[in-house]
Write a structure and sequence with these properties.
Helices cover 26% and strands 39% of the residues. It is built from three helices and eight strands; from the N terminus they run H-H-E-E-E-E-H-E-E-E-E. Strands 1-2-6-7-8-5 form a six-stranded antiparallel sheet, covered by helices on one side. A two-stranded antiparallel sheet has the order 3-4. The protein is globular. The N and C termini lie close together (12 Å). 30% of the residues are buried.
Amino acid sequence: MSPPITSFDSLAMAVDAVPYAKLLGIQSREDNGQPLFFLPFQTHNIGNTILPALHGGVIGGFLETAAILHVMWASEAQSVPKIVDFSIDYLRTGRPAELYAQCEIIRQGKRVANVLMTAWQEDRSKPVAVARAHFLLA
C-alpha cells in the first residue's frame, strides 16, 4: 500500500505516480483549500484537428482521474477507489488551451462516494463538461 494522501504535496506526488495522469500531463494545486486539477495544453490531446478540439476521451479521462485523486485526498486513502459508474455531459468544445477541473464529493459513506466533477477552460461559469461518478472505497 502507498502512504495516504494527506496534503497537497502528497497529492502532487500521487498525480506523478499515476501513469495515465502522467501521460495526459495532469497537474494539481490548491485552490481555497481544495484541489484544483489542470491539464496543460498538449497537441497529442487534440481529437479533432479541423476545429481543433480536445479529444472527448481525454476530457473524460481527465475528469475521472481528478475525481479518483480527489476522493483519495479527501479520505486520506491509501488505495485507489474503484469506479462503479461514470456519466459525463459534454457542454462545449474543448479548445486547444489549458483545461481545469474541480471535484465535489456529494455524499461519502463507508463504502461508496458520489462525486461531481466540472471542467472548464478560461471561465469557470462556462463549463466544457460536467460528470458524476460513484466510487467503491476500500
